Structure formats: C-alpha cells, structure tokens
Amino acid sequence: MIRLLKKYCCVLLVFICALHAHAQDAEIAVTIKGSVRSEGGDPLPGVSVMVKQHNGSDKMNTTTDDKGLFRLQGMKSGVVYDFTFSFIGYENSLLNGFQVKDGNGNLLLIRMKEASKGLNELVVVGYGTRSKKELTGSVSSLRSSDLKQQAITSFDQALAGKMAGIQVMQTNGAPGGNVSIRVRGIGSISAGNNPLFVIDGVPITNDTRSASPGVNNYQQPFNPLASINVNDIASIDVLKDAASAAIYGSRGSNGVVLIRTKKGQAGKMSVSYDGSYGVQTVNKHVDVLNAYDYAQLVYEGHNNAYLDAVPTGKPTDPNSVRPNNPSTRIPPQILPYLEGKPGLTNTDWQKEIFRQAPMQSHTVSVSGGNESLSYYFSANYFNQDGIVINNNYKRYSSRFRVDGSNDKFRFGVNMTPSYTDNHVVNAEGPWFAPNSGVIALALGYAPIFPVHNPDGTFADSVNVWGYGQTNQLNPVAVASLVKDRIKNFRLTANAYMEYEFIPNLKYRISAGTDLNSFRRDYYRPSNLPLSSGTLPSVATGFSNTDMYTNWLTEHTLTYNKTFGRHKLDVLTGFTVQKENQEHNTLTANNFPTDIVTTLNAGQVNAGGSSLEQWSLNSWLGRAQYSYADKYFLTASVRRDGSSRFGINRKWASFPAVSGAWQVSNEPFFKTIKQISSLKIRSSYGLTGNFQIPNYGSLAQMSNANSNYILGNQALVNGVSITSPANPDLTWESMASFDVGLELGLFNEILNLTVDYYNAKTTRLLLNLPVPGASGFSTYLQNIGAVNNKGIEISLSYNKKLGKDWQLEGNANIAFNNNKVTKLGPSGAPIIATGGTGNTYFITKIGETIGSYYLYQTDGIYKDQHDLDVSAKTSNPTRVGDLKFKDINGDGKIDANDRTIAGSFQPKYIFGFSNTLRYKNLDLSVSVQGSQGNKILNLFRRYIANVEGNFNNLSEVKDHYVSPENPGNGLVNRANRLATGGNGITSSWHVEDGSYIRIRNIALGYNFRPALLSKAGISSARIYGAVQNPFTFSKYSLFNPEISNRTENALTAGEDYGSYPLARTYMIGLNVTF
Amino acid sequence: MQQTMKNYKLFLPVLVLIFSACNKKFLDLNPISTIAPGQFFKTAGDAVTAVNGCYASLAQGSQYGATFETLMEARADNFTDQDPSSNAGQNYQINRYSDNPGNTNFYNAWVGVYNGIFRCNTLLTAIDGITMDETLKNRIKAEARFIRALDYFNLVRLWGAVPLLTTATDPVNAVNLKRDDLVTIYKQIEEDLTFAAANLPAAYPAADLGRVTTGAAKGLLGKVYLYEKKYAAAQSVLQDVISSNVFTLLPKVADVFSTTNKYNAEILFAVRYAKGVANQDHGFWYANSQTITVDTTLLKAYNDADLRKPLSAAVKPTGNANMMPRKFLDEPINGNAGNDFPVLRFADILLMQAEVLNEQAYSIAGNAFTYLNMVRTRAGLAELSAADLPNQSSFRNEIYRQRRLELPFECDRWFDLVRTNRAVTEILTNKKVTLPGFRLIYPIPQQEIDIMNNKATFPQNPGYD
Q1: Residues B145/B196, Cβ–Cβ less than 8 Å
Q2: I need a surface site. Which of A172, A680, A803, B139 has the fewest CB within 10 A?
Q3: E-assigned strands of B369-425?
C-alpha cells in the first residue's frame, strides 16, 4: 500500500515499500527502520527525522546515521503518523498519513531532492514568501550555491550577469570598492538609482558619506554591502516590477533586493568550514609609450610649439635662441634618449604600482537545532590585499541567529556584527595633487624617471623639471606615503515575535536596527611634495567619523486560509522607521614631523559636526488569492509618509495589482506532454523614489562660506541661504506595467522566462540646473518624465546527460530603452557639465538620460587646403590639428556644433552561466557582457593629447607629422601648446565600452560521502577558480565597467583613471562535519 | 467564542502601540544643523549676521579669492601664464585669448557674483520686516547696497549687459530673465552707491574695521562715473573723499600691502582675509610653480628708482617653489596666505581725480598735477610739471602709465585698458599677441546660454557664438 501525499512545500518523495499488511486493533510497540538517500542514491547522514502522530500530540525525533539509516522505536502499530525529513541543502520531504503495520517489517526508503530552482521553491517577496508557481510579479532569485567559488569581497559582485535585467557594474576593483546595481535601467535622474536592500526584513541604509568626504569628487566610493559575509547568505531575490516592489512604496522604484540569511535546520549539530585562498594580478596592461618613444614625443611637441611661435626657427635651434616660454624649449633630461643611448632609465610605472596580491577567506559556521529551536552561528575572517601596492582590506564578521517556535508562538533573533578595516590607496580620479589618483599617475608619469633616488628616497623632486612639463607626483610615492584608513563597524540586528491567536491569524511584531559607524583617518605627509615639488610640503590630515543609527518597527497581521480549492492570504501592517545621520570632521595641517600623524600633532584648522534625520511612516496591505493552483491574483497598497517631502505633499499611496494564470494546470493542457508548466502573468503598479536630501524641501541657512573677517583679524558670524525652499517637493512616481511568460519544457529541463515591461517615471526629482543669475546652479524640483521599456529573456536548463553527466545553466539577456519624455515647463534640455571644462552631458526629450554632448571629430586637417576650406574653432588652428564636424553648417566650430556622442547606457546586457557535472566533478563558467555603452574617457585629455607633457597611449605614435606623413589621419600633431580644438573635450575622448567578460571559471570536486563518513565528515568539496580571466573589449584603459560618477545619472560614464579589476586564481575548501 | 474574545483583548495593546507611534510630528523633521529661514530675520543681530554673509561672498574663490585675478588680471599684460596644463589649461587660455564659453572660470565667477547679489537682495527684502533701530537698519541696507553695486560693476565690466535683479528671484522663474541694457544697470549702481554714501558712517569702531564707509561708497561711485565718462559727477564725489581727510597715502608704498598693517589709512575698501583662521585664508595670488613670469614690459616700464618696482617683481619665497609678486607675498609660507585684497585705495582715488580733472580741461596749475605728483613722489619719483607734460594728451598718458605702475595685480589693469580703448594696441605692443576686438568682454558662460536658451533676450556676446 502506498500512500503519497503532497502538501504545501513538500516536493518529491518516493515511498518505495511498506511490507505486508496485517492490521491489528491492539496498539503494539513496533520499530520502523528506514534509509534516506539523495536522488543520486548516496546515503545522507545527519538527516533530521521528525514523526508526529497524525491526530495526536505524540512526537519523536531522530537523525540518520553515517550510512543514512534511521530507526524509530516505540511506534504504535495501526496508528497513522506524519513524517518530516529535513536536511541542509535539500528540500524537506513529507510523508503524511503513514499507517504503521504490525511487526518490525516497516521499512521506509526516502529519496530527498537537492534544493534547487523548482516551481515550489520559496521566493522571498516583501513581508513574506511565496512559492515560485504562485508568483504574480517579476522576481529574479539566486541561491547560496550561486554565490560560491568566486573571488569576491561582496555578494553584489556575484550578481553580475546572473539575473536578467539587473545590471551589475563593478566600477572599481579596489577591495571593498563600489558596485553599481541598476534594475531595469535608469528610472531616475537625480534621486538615486540604487535599489533598496532589505536584509532579513530590515531595509538598510546604503549611505557612504564617510567614504567620500569633501576631499575631491573622485575619491573611490566605498561599498557598505561589503561588510556582509557572502557565506551567510541563503538567498537573494530581486523584485523587479512595480507590482512586487510596491509593497515598499516610496522606496520601490529602483527595485528591491531582498537578502535572506541562513538559519539553522533541525537535526544534529553541523559544523562547516569554508575557506579559500587566492592570488590576484592586474588583468590588463595598458599600452603606453616607453621612455625612448616618450622622449621623442616630448621633443616633437616642444619643437612644434617653438615653430608655431617662431615660424622662421629650426628644430635644431638651441634653447638659448628660443623665446622665454619653457614650452618651446627642449628639456635636457630627454637628450640622452634622443641620442638613443641604450640602458637608460625606462620605468614601467604600471609594474611599479601593481603587484601580485593574496586574498583569503575563512568561515566557520555551526548550525543545528530541533523542531522547536534552531540556531546558526558563523564567524568570518577575510583578508584581501589590493593589486595596487599598500592597499589592504580586512573583514571580521559573525552572525548569530536563533529561531524558535511552538504551536502558536514563534520568535527569532538575528544579529550580525562586522568590522572592516580598509587601508585605502586613492586610485580613482585625476592625477593632480593633492589627492592624486595613482592609476592616472602610473599611466601618465614620465618613464624617463626612476622610482627611487640612489639614496633610496622617492624620486619626486626631479618631477619639477621645468620646460613646461606638467608636474606630476611619483605614483609609487603617493601610494606608499599617504595614510588613508577607513574603519567600519556595523551591527544589523532584528528580532521578531509571532503569535497565532486564532487559527490562521497571526500577529507579528519585529524590531530591527542598523548601526553603522565609520571612521576615516587620512594623513598626507610632508615628505610627499605638492605639485610644486618642494620638500618638505605642508602635511595635512583629516579625521572623519560618521554614525548612522537606523531603527525600524513593524507590526503585521496575516491571515491565510484554504477553503476547498480557494486559497487566501491577507497581510496588513504598519511600520515606523527613523534614521539619524551624524557626521564629524576635523582637519589639521602643519605637522612638525611625520612621526605622529594623529591630528593632535598638527594645527587643527577646521572641524565641525552635523546631524540629520529622516523618518518614514507606512501602512501596508496585501491580499493574495488563488483558485485551484490555476488562477492567482494579488493586490497590494502601501501608504508612505516621509519627512523628506514638502509640507504640501507628505503622504502618498502606492497601489499595485497583479495576476497569473498557470495554464498548464488546466485539464485541457495536460495532454501536451512536452510542456510541463506554462504560466502567464501580468502586473501594474505604482512605486516611488524617496532618495533625496533629508531637508530638500526646506530652505536652509547656514554659515557655510558666510563667516567673515572684521576688526583686527577677528572672525564674525555670517549666514546665507544655501538652498532655496520647495514646499511642493515630493516622491518620484513610477507606474510600471509588466507582462511575463514562464514556460517549463520537458519536465522542467528547460525553463524560459520572458518579460516585457514599460515603466513611466513622472514627477522626476531633478536637481535642475537653473540660471546662475538666480544665485544658484541647481534647484531640486519634481519635473519631467522618463520612460524605460524593455524585454528580458532568461533561459535555464538542467539536464541529466546519461548516468554520470549533468548540465545546468542559465542564459539571460535584457534590452532596455531609456527615453526622456518630459522635462521642465519648457521642455528645454538639461545640459550638465562633467569633470572638466567643455565636458557636457545632455538630457533631452526623446533621448537617453545623460548623453554625452560634444564636438564631433572628423579626423584632422590634412593639408593647408583642407584647413582653409573647413570650419574651425576661434582658436588659431594649424594643419594636423583635430578637425570637427560643422553640425549646423555655419562655417565655424562653436558650442552650437555640439552633438550627442553616445551614452553610458548599454543597448543590451547579457549573462551566461553554466555548470557541467561529471560524477563528483563540476565545472562552471559565468560570463557577463554589455553592448552599446560608450565611455567618456576624460583621461584621454592627458594620455592621448600628443602634447608631450604626459606619457601617452601607444596609439598616438600614429599621429600627424607632415602632409607627407599624416599618420592614421585620426591623431592630431604633436604640440606642447595645443592649437585649434585639440584641448577641447570632444568625441576624440569617447570610446566604445562594450565588453564580454568571463567572470568566473571554477572546477570543483565533491568527495563521496561514503569515503568521508569514516572521518566523521558529512560532506567535503574542493575547488579551484579563476575570477575575471578574460575580458574582450576595445576599451583603451583598464575597466570598461567604469563610471566615475555612477551616483549622478546626468553625468555618468566618465573615466578619469580607475582601479583595475583583478584576475584572481583561487583554491577553496568546504567541509561539513 | 470565549477564547476568541480573550484574543481580541490581547490585540488591544498592540492597537494602542500602533496608533501612538503614528503622530504627525514624527514626520515633521526640521533641520538640526542648519537654520530654516522662518526662524531667522527676527532681530537686529540677525540682520548684522546676514550682512556679514554678504561681505563673505566677495571673499569666495569665485570672486576676489581666486577667479577674479584670472579674469581681471591674467587677461591683461602684467604677466604671462606659462602653464598650459593647470586647470586643464583654462587659465592659460584666458591669458592667451583662446578661451571659449565653456571655460569654467566664467561660470564660477558668474554664479559666485550672482550668489552675492542674491544674499544682498534677500537681506534687503527681509530687513523691512525686522523691528530695529532705524539708523542701524539703514546702515545695514547701505552696506548691502554697496556690495550689490560692486557686484554689478564687476559683472558689466566682465560681460557687458547682464540680468539686473534687485529682489531675490525664484530659481525656476530665472529662465525668464533677459540681459538688461547697460544704462539701466549703471543707473541702479549709481542709486545703490548714492544711498550707501548717504547712510554709511565715515568710520567704525575698531571691531567693525572692514565694513564699508561713506568714503568707500563715494570712491566707488567716483570710479563708476569715470567709467561712464561722467567727469563732473566723478570730480564731485572724488573731491569729497579727498577733502574728508579720512584717507592718506602711506609714506612707504610697501606698507600698504603689509600683512601686519592691514586696513591702513590708504585703504578705502578691501576684501578681508586672515591666515590661521579656518577657511578665511586664500591661495597665493598669481602664484604658480614656474608658470607665471611677470611680464618684462611691466618691469621695464618702471624707472629703477621706482619704489614700486620691487613690489611687482616675482619672488620665490623661502620653502616654496611658487613664484609670486612681492606685493602679495605673505611670509612665512604656511599653506595659504592672509593678505587682504585691496579693492579701492587712496592712490587710485588721487589718480582718478587727476584724470577726471584733466579730461575736463588740461590745467597747468590745477590739482591734477598735485594729485599725480603725490603718487609719484611717494614712489620715489621726481615731481612733474607742465614742462614735462605740456598738454592734455601727454598728461593723460602719464596718468595711464602711473595707473599701470601703481596698481598692477589689483584687478585694475585690464579694465583700464578696455575703458580707455587701448587694449588692442597695448596687448600687441607688450604681449606681441593680436587681441581680437570681441574679446574685450568675456563670453557669457555656455552653461547659462544653454539654460536660458533664448537667442533674442539672452544672446551670447558677439564673436563667441
């Protein structure tokens, strides 16, 4: 007799046999034996077996032994029992209604299915979970197994390429460096495009002010998510469409990333160790000129500057007869190189600042529990050296989680303290002092200089070599001498209690907090010169501390009931959240020595503290109804009140509806054998975006730039209005429509998901450039609209190929089209300026947000005739200078000839990850790519300027020399004193940023349990992996994922020097006892 | 049922908790570290604090702190910028007349000056709502109107016609602004300065040293009249300044710029700085490594006996590779400098009055020679007489020469060249560079042209579009 019952979350259970039936009325104690195996037939030791009398309270527990066998004594024959089998990494198996037979012949054989992506898999949605088949919105999910065996500091890096429509850009290769995540394009211009991160129900703050204090705009951003240990994550679910995200109301527009951490499983205590060790190297060498070619360029640049000034001069004229302008004279330092003397200093500065850097991670976790109480504890140590010298990142983190329950009551506590210690080397941004980016320096610094003087000191002072050459700092000295350290202590904690006070009606209260504190100490010593080159320089230092205190309480009531084939889930709730943001800063200079670098040693010259707050009150409600597992309907609403919005617009409602039809559950469909599941779903909802300054709606006055000196050098207080008021300021509103199709073929071997979405954001929060004549540059307003529409296709497959082979994988591609549809009252375009003069970005109706808006190059003026007949800028222009297209045809080149030169937004992004298993071996490959995005490589202003003041990319060797020797017709002539438009930011500085990157290749081996059980080990795995082994891209600098300004959609896409990604070779071990 | 009732009772405290948390105040958060304007402009003290903020706008890097030296001095022929690299070559381009409207110096100065005007306008509107001593109220208004007048005087000299605002405008509505004509703007400048002259004291207690006086207002008004070629009007107000005997030439010219002798008797108005007070210092004016050489034509123009020559020479201070004019050297070099920026000083008043008198009628015996010779003798030069300067034109040229020698690096030379129509010829002579005529005023910043987006009411200056 076989009784098989599937219910709720149970998946697959095969009950093979129950030997002979001989029912007796009397209850006689008998013993049941059983064996639990994986689907592959391997015995599973340590599986928790729970037995409950079907209509009574008798309970029993046991676990399987090292052969996967269990034995339950004292069972009563003739009585009906419910069995639950649970084991980490496997789906729970239920066996309900098993009637015990007389005698000791009761034998159970249970096969457990490995937890994987199935229709019954639970997906975290806001304030609850649903099985995948019940989902009515668009959600992408990852499980912990997808995150493993990658050389990453932060889980968000592992998302790259894994989920359709989610663009993950690792813009910065520094350990702990920033990752930019965009869900379905850019929906906002200035209110921030970061999704909301919710960890175990607590929406967390992602503020990074301490990491980018007002030192300069290009300081590499710091990633607060790096404080989370990847090994603790059980699942990541991303709510993509408005209907799913609307439950997060005014924070849902950019998508919501829900992270669930691991919890203990009932069963015997399990101890796990996860460790990895890797070696990182820089993944690219940028091809720049060597010392001899560089000297030649300097010579040519200076001679041309001379010949421009003195047309009668000759290149061989000595400096003494040249004008008193250093740029026209030949620096004597290059003379030996011009003579071609062998063996001269020829420094490869990239070699000097990059290194092979080790990284390691160790996590120990202990988990276990029983039916009423489970626990999970983990501790992690992570240590990564940056591939740039002197850069190091360490993390110490742990997690404590306890969950308990009885019939009516559940509770849980979850605490994650973490501490990170980041020794920063400023790699990002422009070369210039005082906060020079070392990457830019390493590329542009003259290769004719050595790293060190003969006495061992840094060869800095030779940098000031006169002759109109740009004073740069020795990149090795910058990386070695500046002390910059960010320490971050973070505690995220939450606790909940749930009480079922009438059947199916549960009240839950939860309280959470996120305490995040940063400290940054910076010291720039006196033995590092400023651009003047003089030593000692004036030493400077600052010390910043930030404290973010965020607390949240939530009250929810849920009711779920099944009436026949009807199923109803209702949620209602109320939440309160508040955050304090405190900031202290102190700066000092004139340190007497470099021995003591804390600020007490210097003269403190500025400091301050500030406090800001925001608060959010919300009501929420959701009803989910389904009929016969065929028709699913969800309606939700959230009402948010925010302190950030103007007095006239404090509250807003965010409703959403969605529905799904599981077509394959219709009787008429059962006949189509090939299609195992088919679901059609559609949703429509409203979400908002509240990421604006805390007091953006209010005018503010402060003493910033307003104090003044009167009398005998006395400071008097002054104030002025620093930002004008806007009492109507409110949330951005996004209305989004989504229709999706989910198709499972051949018994779920192949799963295809296709989504089309159309999201319209209105009331865009816009720091709109306003006329400077108003006294301000920008003014925060709700104005304009933007439209994102696109298609996402995701295909996953999981197929056993013969006895020993299995292939599983996922391929996804997403097309997004971003268009501005409305701007301001007049519809006039917004033209914003970037990192330097003449660098314009345009946001214009009908175009993509933040398109580059530049002069369009058209080769070079190839001869005098070409120069005479072509349009020119108002600067004196010569043959060989860059030529520009006269867009408006008025015969001259000026601001009216600017035109759109691409944008940082890709046409489509794609990802591909595959795992091939053979017996216990598995090989996985993941690939990520982006097509059609352009990079505004501002560093080309220096590294491709052909002036001879900077080292240049090797591509400039093909520059124009004379009409007979015009080079490749694209690169302007060498000239230290740029003529024409050579110095203007133009399409000459724009490059194609398309790329295909092999993110990860990993080979792993799982030891056979039978082999391990003797050593008391239940599972063991070793693996080797390479992270970022190959990148296919035409981009000339290091990283095509770059954007120096991801936080401002109006001006994103610049590269002014950036920290390269590492190629990492790693090995790892995972053992569970 | 009994059981259910009990459960509802359990639920009651929860409901209380929910509703108690939901009160209106929770969402009405006011700034803690900044002031909301509604809380301000209540007392006389608030008005004083706000007018201090107006002065502070002049000291910003976008004005006298840094950018003005680039726009008003680097444009002229007193020094040569040899650094095509720093600030992306933008300063170099201004010095070499190859700048374009995207040059960020333009926008920085534009929005910086207009922010100062916004501060003055905000105060001038709000102060009427404050109940306070009327004399003090009028003094504060006069201070704000002086600063606003100076702002507009700088704007018209840099860009020509600009929008004229006398009340704070909504930033959104500012797109409707047009370029008002010069006559209207000059009329407003004259009105503001006339009001200031009438309502400001002749001097202040020591603690207020640095505030605008009636003498400063009259002196600036005289300069404005001179630019407008209203010589009679200029003569009258300048004579008031001279006759007031509040200001004198210091015996030693070097003392005028000494950082230990700030706001001395020769200073009518200076923008104030202090070294060692947080955020109140400034970078070294005109200083840069290797890149700035004082133009040899300036140094050659000095007689070797001229006591002002060493002040104009570039020096390399101890412990620093930067070259800077000795005039603005502030040793010991300690990060930044603390010199005050002299906007208007008595030597300038004397030279202006001499010029004004001469422009009306050349006179052998008049005060024109007296004032000119006061400046010359203080510089260690011989007095000149009608024998040396026999006619109006030769006298005029000597005034021009003395203005260049007396006031270099004080943001005067470029405007002098332009107002006297000598810029093109002098630049060609001294810098050997052809200066196109349209470059006598700067292009309106491209960003402003882009935002205004109206060729009729907000055109670019000719030659730049």
Answers
A1: yes
A2: A803
A3: none
Q: Closest CB to B37: pick one of A699, A831, A984.
A: A699
Q: Answer for the pair A1039, A1057: CB distance below 8 angstroms, yes or no.
A: no
Residue A1028 DSSP SS3: strand
Cβ(A786)–Cβ(B464) under 8 Å? Answer: no
Q: Closest chain A residue to B204 measured between Cα atoms?
A: A711
Contacts of B307 (CB under 8 A, 6+ apart): B252, B253, B254, B378, B379, B380
Residue A13, pLDDT score:
28
ipTM over 0.85: yes
DSSP secondary-structure letter at B29?
A: P
Inter-chain contact A775–B115, Cβ cutoff 8 Å? yes
Evaluate if residue A63 carries a pLDDT over 70: yes
Q: Is A833 on the interface with B (CB under 8 A)?
A: yes
Between CA B270 and CA A129 the distance in angstroms is 69
The beta-strand segments (E) located in A43-195 are 48-53, 59-63, 69-76, 80-86, 93-99, 107-112, 122-125, 128-131, 139-143, 166-169, 180-183
Closest residue by Cα to residue A229 from A170, A141, A148: A148
**Residue A1052 neighbours by CB distance under 10 Å:** 24
Q: Sorting pLDDT into bands at 50, 70 and 90, what band is A250? A: confident
Interface size, chain A vs chain B, as Cβ–Cβ contacts under 8 Å: 309
- To the nearest 10°, the Cα dihedral for B454, B456, B459, B461? 170
Mean pLDDT, rounded, for A22-45:
70
Pairwise CA distance, residues A378 & A266, whole Å = 17
Assess whether pLDDT exceeds 80 at residue A187. Answer: no
Q: What is the pLDDT of residues A369-398, one digit of tens each?
A: 887 899 999 999 999 999 999 999 999 999
pTM: 0.78
d(CA A622, CA A136): 13
Between the alpha carbon of residue A855 and those of residues A858, A884, A891, A973, B255, the distances in Å are: 10, 7, 14, 18, 51
Place of tokens 């006759």: B243
Please check whether residue A114 touches B, CB under 8 A: no
Q: Which of A523, A526, A529, A542 is nearest to A597 (CA)?
A: A523
Chain A residues within 8 A of B280 when measuring between CB atoms: 707-709, 715
- Contact in structure between A526 and A591 (CB atoms under 8 Å): yes
Contact (Cβ atoms closer than 8 angstroms) between residue A251 and residue A180 = no
Within 10 angstroms of residue B325's Cβ, the number of other Cβ atoms is 24
Tokens of A834: 């970037």
In Å, how far is B357's CA from the nearest CA of chain A?
A: 35
Render the burial of A930-956: b for 16+ CB within 10 Å, e for the rest.
bbebbbbbbbbbbbbbbbbbbbbbebb
Tokens representing A573?
A: 């709730």
- Closest CA relative to residue B27, chosen from A614, A911, A954, A1020: A614
User: Looking at residue A189, what is its pLDDT?
Assistant: 64
Please count the other Cβ atoms lying within 10 Å of the Cβ belonging to residue A80.
15
A808 pLDDT tier (thresholds 50, 70, 90): confident
Q: Three-state SS for A457? A: coil
**CA gap A209, A223 in Å, rounded:** 11
Question: B21 vs A698: CB contact, 8 Å cut-off?
Answer: no
d(CA A1011, CA B34): 68
How far does CA A766 lie from the centroid of its chain?
A: 24
Spatial distance between the Cα atoms of A686 and A241, rounded to a whole number of angstroms: 10
The predicted-structure confidence for B381-434, as pLDDT tens digits, reads as follows 999 999 999 999 999 999 999 999 999 999 999 999 999 999 999 999 988 888
Percentage of chain A exceeding pLDDT 70:
91
Is the bond preceding A536 in cis, omega lying within 30 degrees of 0?
A: yes
> How confident is the model over A945-955, as pLDDT tens digits?
898 888 999 99
Beta strands at A934-937 and A1054-1055: parallel, antiparallel or unpaired: parallel
